[in-house]
Amino acid sequence: MSIVVVGSVAYDSVETPAGSAPDILGGAATYFSIAARFFAPVSVVAVVGSDFKAESRQVLSSHNIDLRGLEQRPGKTFRWHGRYHEDMNTRDTLSVALNVFEGFRPTLLPDQRRCDYLFLANINPELQASVLDQTQSPRLVAGDTMNKWIAESSAVLKKLLPRIDILTLNDEEARMLSGEHNLVRAGRAILKMGPKTLLVKRGEYGVLQFSSESMFAVPAYPLEEVIDPTGAGDTFAGGFMGFLARNGRVTESTLRTAVVYGSVMASFVVEKFGLDRLLSLSWEEIDNRYRAFIELTDSHHSRWISQ
Amino acid sequence: MSIVVVGSVAYDSVETPAGSAPDILGGAATYFSIAARFFAPVSVVAVVGSDFKAESRQVLSSHNIDLRGLEQRPGKTFRWHGRYHEDMNTRDTLSVALNVFEGFRPTLLPDQRRCDYLFLANINPELQASVLDQTQSPRLVAGDTMNKWIAESSAVLKKLLPRIDILTLNDEEARMLSGEHNLVRAGRAILKMGPKTLLVKRGEYGVLQFSSESMFAVPAYPLEEVIDPTGAGDTFAGGFMGFLARNGRVTESTLRTAVVYGSVMASFVVEKFGLDRLLSLSWEEIDNRYRAFIELTDSHHSRWISQ
């Protein structure tokens, strides 16, 4: 089943301890869709400026991403310039220019309104709500947000949360939204705000999934080298949502497997700058790392019990 | 099979954001043995001063810990005073007085020399080597160390490492010992120094186990409230080593289960100040949290495959 993603398509300039990459194709909707398309067809709703390169469009369309919803408007494409610290866990935004993204008013095409799987990447929660208003009861709605909206649009966001099945946040955002420092308490508090499932992304420390029935914790796949963490969270969401759309069922069991696939996809994207690693990735590589991930986290419990 | 642990028995004064506890029984050998004794008989080799309370001795002996190797000498018992920061991940040592521990020259009793399982808690690596010299080929030797010895006794430590089967370090110590910031590279470099298995303790982020064949990663059990992290690493080691001694075999599979039991024990000790939670703990509680831990980390892989 196909997925619709609404969010940013951008040009990023990234500096990390491993080097730098100026003006590369990025944005939440981009990372999400390049990851999700391994699992299911993806349709993007986004806006770019008149400077958006034919080459960038080609990157997306040649990977089977439906770009009918990629609006091109006079002006410049969203640009972000960031620099990561030595430990890669924190970064400074050196400059950000929303450009045409500032006037983004997402409009779904008729077939997108009937989508089954919808991912609301990090945009103003008012726009996320307006997207939901356009849809006809999707089977699954997942959404992301950021500290800015938690601080500035708290009321709108809290009204939106009961309409979202799965919310993704990083640990700091989870603390901020809930007002709880402890992540278990933060997770429980956020579930009471509406979403059925909460995914707390902890970077190199993995992911915590909260649902009413249970908690699920996975480490991040340990890598020998991290080149560029940009887009890891959206790539995670793409693998996660992609697996659910491909599987077709949402249960505790498929949610957990989806978290593993999301973690697998995120472990690839950080190995090179920007989209480079995802664009060269094969299904065989995904499958091998999925197996390695399962082996990494397998406590051999059943083997011990059976002895 | 029984375990011998060599290390500190101390009085700690602990301040955490949750409160404070002055002059409570602590020390690496204490936490280790109170955790390990749930799984196997434990014998302690340590030194205390003339101020060591009969009540403290009673705490240990009433929990079936063999204290024949607990030497009492004129002078004061080792004292440590520390304060944890708001996030509980870092702490400041406000004062430390080695007292009689400064002159500690561990001497094993004849039956301790023939022990099968030996844990060398964090003491001067020269002393750790002298303990090994006294033993008659134990089946398994595990050891801990700290930044001080890595900085000041690097040569002695590196000569000791090939004699240790399982080394436990925290992430900063692993980085310092290996000179590698990346933990995967750090882990591989340390395995080349001698130990067959390396356990990297990451506090609230869990444990990474490195062996020549594989990596194993577990998260820490997410808790709603952490009261006092003191002793968590030694409690982990106690649960880990305890399970291995009880099981009797050291395989990739039992090592992984041991990491889970270590994590389970560590998740209890931080719930109250000092030893309080471990002293009130029942086997049923351990078993319940073990099951909860397995459920927490179970990716439901096999269920998905079988569908």
Outline of the structure:
Two copies of one chain form a homodimer. The first copy, chain A, has 307 residues and is an alpha/beta fold. Chain A has helices at 28-36, 54-61, 110-113, 125-134, 147-152, 154-160, 171-178, 183-191, 232-247, 252-269, 276-279, 283-297, 301-306, and strands at 3-6, 10-16, 19-26, 42-48, 65-66, 70-72, 78-84, 91-97, 117-120, 140-144, 166-170, 197-201, 207-211, 215-218.
Please provide a written account of the structure.
- The structure is a homodimer of 307-residue chains.
- Chain A is α/β, with parallel strands linked by helices.
- Chain A has a single domain (3-299), classed as Ribokinase (UDP-N-acetylmuramoyl-L-alanine:D-glutamate ligase), CATH 3.40.1190.20.
- In chain A, 39% of the residues lie in helices and 24% in strands.
- Chain A contains 13 helices and 14 strands.
- Chain A has helices at 28-36, 54-61, 110-113, 125-134, 147-152, 154-160, 171-178, 183-191, 232-247, 252-269, 276-279, 283-297, 301-306; strands at 3-6, 10-16, 19-26, 42-48, 65-66, 70-72, 78-84, 91-97, 117-120, 140-144, 166-170, 197-201, 207-211, 215-218.
- In chain A, the strands form 2 sheets. In chain A, strands 1, 4, 5, 6, 9, 10, 11, 12, 13 and 14 form a 10-stranded mixed sheet that branches.
- In chain A, helix 4 (125-134) links the parallel strand 9 and strand 10 (140-144).
- Chain A is globular.
- The N and C termini of chain A lie far apart (42 Å).
- The model of chain A is unreliable at 303-307 (pLDDT under 50).
- At the A-B interface, helix 8, strand 14, helix 10, helix 12 and helix 13 of A face helix 8, strand 14, helix 10, helix 12 and helix 13 of B.
